Amino acid sequence: MLIYNANVVCLNDLIEQGAVYIQNGRVNRILSHQELDSFLLKKPDLYSVNAGGAWLIPGFVDVHVHGGNGYDFMDATEESLLGISKFHAQHGTTSMLATTVTSSKDNIEKVLKSVASFQEEIQPFAQVIGVHLEGPFISPNMPGAQNPNYIVPPNVNWMKEWTEIYPNIVKILTLAPEADHAIEVIEYSLSQGIVIACGHSDGTYEEILRATEAGLTHSVHMYNAMRGFHHREPGVAGNILVNEGLSTEIIADGEHVHPVSIQLLTKLKNKDNLLLITDAMSAAGLGDGTYNLGGLEVVMKDNVARLKEGGNLAGSSLTMIEGFKYMVNTVGLSVSEASKLASYNPAKLLGLEYEVGSIREGYQADLLLLTKDLEIEKVWKRGELIEF
């Protein structure tokens, strides 16, 4: 298949009126407008898609998403996994991590088992490439919308058990690095190839620094559920802002973080260590109403989800395409810059940057065709058009 007459967004280049030739589910050639005619002479019967001057960008990689369209990954069923992956694929996500919430050990194990089984099936929508454990090893001082009844200190025996029974399933572990035994868990999890993330943390600047030295490399939903910046104690937020060894995430929905704070983040992280996520919960895609998150009641009103008790923001109703548009239209990034945050940087975090997350020859053909107004026209995964 050939997609032509597109603004092709590559990692370090924008090819106007370019074309992408796909073969066996991978990008075989990237062509300029000048190269197209001679290429077509060699393949006169090639199936072609005229992009009409639209944007062609890599599929989104969401490393922090809890659910959508009424489904939650904590349901731990094939129906929910299919429902979530279909919903988010409709909004441009082609790869995702099933993200847990702080819950019982038994419930977390059910999620690990369900994802391990799901990976053995044909996945027609977004690819569920593993699990992001958000909790239960978080700070009781910074629960956010996590259920405080299930918060426990970091437990290396649990991590050993989970990685032995479900090898290569856990891709990210979010914990409070200041907690007792956190360094031990960080060092063990790192040895298993797991990305260690700071989140729901009340740690000091120095505590986060020590965790970074032990192997912490990432942080979740910047500014939210973390000790904030103070000029005499920079806290978690201050460490992330200046620490080049830490990447971080942003929920770009206009509710979680002020756009100026996001602009500051893009300047300090130079757009290399910043990831766009949804943190979407089951209410994403649905209307106002009452929902459940980790056993806690959540009220959705005007697309904003908050805990019924206490009023804390509870995940989001965001999709990746809406976050992408917010980064372009409100924060002021270019389409190419926003694409890096939504696709390449998340893939790089997971060590998948040579497979997905950018449009390059030899890479998996996970592609989105966007109108000039950044609305999704088509979604391809491994070169196959996803039918919804």
From TrEMBL:
<dbReference type="InterPro" id="IPR032466">
    <property type="entry name" value="Metal_Hydrolase"/>
</dbReference>
<dbReference type="InterPro" id="IPR006680">
    <property type="entry name" value="Amidohydro-rel"/>
</dbReference>
<dbReference type="InterPro" id="IPR003764">
    <property type="entry name" value="GlcNAc_6-P_deAcase"/>
</dbReference>
<dbReference type="Pfam" id="PF01979">
    <property type="entry name" value="Amidohydro_1"/>
</dbReference>
<keyword id="KW-0119">Carbohydrate metabolism</keyword>
<keyword id="KW-0378">Hydrolase</keyword>
<keyword id="KW-0479">Metal-binding</keyword>
<dbReference type="GO" id="GO:0008448">
    <property type="term" value="F:N-acetylglucosamine-6-phosphate deacetylase activity"/>
</dbReference>
<feature type="domain" description="Amidohydrolase-related">
    <location>
        <begin position="56"/>
        <end position="385"/>
    </location>
</feature>
<dbReference type="InterPro" id="IPR011059">
    <property type="entry name" value="Metal-dep_hydrolase_composite"/>
</dbReference>
<comment type="similarity">
    <text>Belongs to the metallo-dependent hydrolases superfamily. NagA family.</text>
</comment>
<protein>
    <submittedName>
        <fullName>N-acetylglucosamine-6-phosphate deacetylase</fullName>
        <ecNumber>3.5.1.25</ecNumber>
    </submittedName>
</protein>
